[in-house]
Amino acid sequence: MEAISKFPYAHQPVRSISFPPRVHPSCQRVEALLNHLKPHHSQPVSSTTCLEAETIQSDLVVLAELYNCMEELFHSPQTQQALLRYQDGKLVEEALCGSVTLLDTCESARDLLLVLKEHMQNLHSAVRRRKGDSSIESSISAYDSLKKKAKKTIAKQLGQLKRMYNKVNSFSFLEQDQQLAFLARVLREASTITISILHSLLVFLSMPTFGTKGSSLISKLKATVLFSSQKENKNTNGVSDLNNVLCSLLRREKNGEFQRALTVLETLNVNIDGLEGGLDCIFRCLVKHRVSVGDLVRAQKHRASFEKEKNTKRVTMANKFHVRSNSFPTGSHPSTVSVEEELSKLKTWEATSTSSSKSIGIGLSMLADLHICLEDLLNIASTQKLISNHRGEKCMEELLDGSVRILDICGITRDTMLQIKENVQSLHSALRRRKGDSSIEKIIAEYNFFSKKMKKNAKKLITSLKQMESKFGVSPLLNQDQQLVALVRVLREVIVMNMSILQSLLVFLAVPASNSKSTKWLLVAKLMHKRVIACEENQENINELQCVEASLSEGTNVAKMQAAHERLKALENAIESLESGLESVFRRMIKMRAHLLNIMTH
């Protein structure tokens, strides 16, 4: 962020169509950041020019600061009044609709980067571990297969971005008011620049495929190298360099190509790390931006609804007291029964669950099923009408706030799981490569340092969840429509269940179950410097993280390292399962919040 503040134009006068500087201090900053991003993203989204990873990463950092400044600007009462004044909030409604596409594209790009990173690590490990071995072809084929699968996803997202770009640029705005003119331009340019940066990232990831395997794979790689060399000056990045070295490895041209391949893979892995971090930051900024814009739209709708109720008091009173039954809305609908059944199953699981990864994985799977049933319920017309009729009320605002907070915690937990997976894989790979080497102690020390930091962060998230749980759902539902009471109760229970399962997962990551028999014996073995007692597979409360830590504390001889290998493999499997379940829940949370926002703003 400090680098951004050193832009030479950051303190230049703002153009005439901008806000007067005295209105809000963020105006000039927003203008400067937009001007910084425009040179890189002035071309239409149909362009196939591939930017370097460092450029995209830098633009993501600036874009995140732009959204933070816009957030400050939109919290100004003058800004909110100006936005809502134009055609009953048309500007913010346009921004709200577009944010769904941006979030979807951002999430897809995050997934692509994650999978690509895993394949880069596998390639790196294969080249470093099995020089000259034909198994390298297998790793390259798997990498090529990934790109074939990613091709359709990228094409779909590029199509969505292009349609949104055309829609944003077709929006005509004729307004003499300087405030409105400035805000309209900021919203439009922020959207087009975000589209362009995401487009550049997807183009960077849309690499050509090689082929299948054997001689066919080599011939495809040769063609790729020729094609890349012809455009080397115009369209080069770390991916094209990787294609070249992979070709050389398969043809076994030079022994030095192995070292070059390692260098290229390490560089590309660093670039992917940077892009992943920038994209995570942008995703959170987009979520906050959508929440802020959604709040403005809801405020406008609530204001309009309030005025309408004042003018039609008789109709309002009739609507207020006309309750046909005491049942849940559309009580006969199968979705209603399904939601209640899934909640009942989860409550049973909660009462009988253990602290093991297997038990938590089951809970995550059941939670995903609950969200699927909830989506069906929110798609019912009568449910949507009920929510829409009561938008702006305190209970609804509480649900929206709870959904975004639980989404944020889930996102952070998701990132933590990814970090654990990466560190465990790196540790496992390092131990396989350097058996008996004294450097193993350094590798173990690095893992232990990460583990302590991770547990500390997990405990902070547990505290946040407990604080949120103590304050959530405290607003009374007195004198409310009984159908509304039933719906709010169910939505509250869903969010509370999310808190409970996330807390179970974080407890698993932070500290193992204190009453676990295996944990006590492992602690004794560690303190007495004796042989680690095996973490048997049939133990109920087994904690794979604790087992690995115990193994690593017992020495670095061959026998100890073999035990560590086995437990690291078990931990990798456990983390893989938990990560998959959490990813499914995270996506469902995003959909649930999007459903609620769309219902309340339309």
From TrEMBL:
Swiss-Prot/TrEMBL GO biological process terms: root development; shoot system development
Q: Does the keyword Coiled coil apply?
A: yes
**Keyword field:** Coiled coil
Could you tell me the superkingdom of the organism this chain comes from? Answer: Eukaryota
Q: Which residues form a coiled coil?
A: 561-588
Q: Which PANTHER family match?
A: DOMAIN PROTEIN, PUTATIVE (DUF241)-RELATED (PTHR33070:SF109), OS06G0725500 PROTEIN (PTHR33070)
> What protein name applies here?
DUF241 domain protein
